[in-house]
Each structure stands twice: as C-alpha cells, then as structure tokens.
Amino acid sequence: MSAPVFLAEASGSSEGGAGGGLSGFPVGSLYVLDGAEGRHAGVVQRRAVGEDIDVVDGEGLRLRCTIEAVAGPGVSLRVREVVQEPAPDVVVTLVQALAKGDRDEMAIEAATEVGADAVVPWQAERSIVVWRGDRAAKSRARWLATVRAATKQARRARLPRVDLAIDTRGLVDRTRQVVEAGGAVIVLHEEALVPLAEVPLPSPGDPAAASSHAPEVLVVVGPEGGISEREVEALTEAGARTARLGPHVLRTSTAGPVAIAMLVQRLGRWDGADEGR
C-alpha cells in the first residue's frame, strides 16, 4: 500500500536541515510535520511511530519518511529518501465551465486525481452559476481546497494550479496564446466528427524545463446546457479543435476527467515509466 501524502506547510524543523523548503532536508535528517497537516496526521488520522508517510512541496519534491515520534499536532519524521519528480513535458489543463450542484467541483476533483496539471474556471454563456464579488472568492477557495485534497488522495507530488475565472472572451484570448506557443486546445463537443483519441497532441517540451515553458493542452468542457454555437465558432476561429469522447453524452462533471484520463494515457504517464508525473 502506498504511503499517505501530506503537503508541506511554511514550517518544519530539522536536525541537519538547511532551510529553503523541503530541499533543505537530506536523507537522514529529521523533519517535523506540524500546523494543520501535522494535526491531521497525528490527531485526526492517529498515525503511529514506525509508519511511513510522504511529505511533498506541491512542486515535485517528495520526502519519503518514517515516523519517529508523535506529539499531538507535531509529527517527527526521519527522511529515508528524497525524490524530485520531473515537471510535465506537456501541461494538461482542464477548462471547466461553472456548473450548478457542485458538479464543477466534482469534475476538478476527479481530474486532479487522474492527472490534470491545472484547472481553469470558465464562466460560459450557459453557466447557471455566476462567480461575482465575494462569491467568486469563496468559490475559488473551494476549488483550491478540492484540488489540494484530491492531490493528497492521489499521492501526487505536484499540486495542480487553479487559475482565476475567465469568461469566453478570456478563453478565446488564451486559446490563441496556447496555439501560437505550439500547444493545442480541444473543445469537447457531442457533434464533433473527430474522436479525442485521434486529435494531434503537441510535441513534448524539454523535461528539464519549468512546466510553464512546456507546451499546453487545454481541454474545454461546457456547462449542463452545453457550449453555445457562438462559443464554438469563436474558439475554433482562435485555433481550437472540436472532439468527441465517444458514442455517449457525458455530464459536465464526468466529461473532463474522462478526457484528461485519455490524454495522460496517450502522453505515456500511466505506463509506469514516469512515476508521479
């Protein structure tokens, strides 16, 4: 069974640690998991001495550790192994239309678990839910919490980015930018003729480069009422391609995760060669 994952907070002390985040904790050093994550491990989950857990920084660095002591919300961990997982050579981003009944949150939760690198809230024309003012801040905070929890559930070392909400005009602009940079934008549409499995994907970038420099694939999912013809036209004029998932019409909460799973499989992330990618 894989070790549970905890996200490093802006704290933690060590014997032999040199600071600078998790990079300051070499093999053999002592890391103290405290704060909210330490309380969750020591008090809520009642983790015990001798158990293995991983601590990640959300940017690809993973400490594989063994618990040496538990003192309430402070869990002392001995570092057994330090793993730096590479940045994705193709960034896969889910553009999820805002949807009622928490269906958008269900979508980003599952998409994070299967491998999305980023999620973008989209205020589509037919979105019933509207993010404005205080509601926008609270709703994005829920998305952040959802992605964080899903990252831990999936034992990931990289925390997907949650962008600010955009409207259709903003999505059209971003589509142009992604395509001009060598990426691809795929609009899921039930009337599309080309299946997602046959849509050309961008060539991988340099695995050693920062993920922001890697080509990006945007997967656009509409709300319950679907993407309007005007939106499809504007996005395709900006360089997007339409694609269908299969013979069935999926809910907005399901389409994105299924598409992300298909894409990460095509990119080789599930072949066992790139653990943690």
UniProtKB/TrEMBL annotation:
What family does this chain come from, according to its entry?
A: Belongs to the RNA methyltransferase RsmE family.
What is the protein name stated in its UniProt record?
Answer: Ribosomal RNA small subunit methyltransferase E
InterPro entries given for it? Alpha/beta_knot_MTases, PUA-like_sf, RsmE, RsmE_MTase_dom, tRNA_m1G_MTases_N
Q: Which reaction does it catalyse?
A: uridine(1498) in 16S rRNA + S-adenosyl-L-methionine = N(3)-methyluridine(1498) in 16S rRNA + S-adenosyl-L-homocysteine + H(+)
Q: What is its EC number?
A: 2.1.1.193
Q: What does this protein do?
A: Specifically methylates the N3 position of the uracil ring of uridine 1498 (m3U1498) in 16S rRNA. Acts on the fully assembled 30S ribosomal subunit.
GO process annotations (BP)? rRNA base methylation
PANTHER family given in the database record: 16S RRNA (URACIL(1498)-N(3))-METHYLTRANSFERASE, RIBOSOMAL RNA SMALL SUBUNIT METHYLTRANSFERASE E
A GO CC annotation given for this chain: cytoplasm
Q: Where is the Ribosomal RNA small subunit methyltransferase E methyltransferase domain?
A: 90-263
Pfam families registered for this protein in UniProt = Methyltrans_RNA
Q: Localized where?
A: Cytoplasm
Write the record's keywords in alphabetical order, separated by commas.
Answer: Cytoplasm, Methyltransferase, rRNA processing, S-adenosyl-L-methionine, Transferase
Q: What is its main location?
A: cytoplasm
NCBIfam families hit by this protein: PRK11713.2-3, RsmE family RNA methyltransferase
GO MF terms held by the record? rRNA (uridine-N3-)-methyltransferase activity
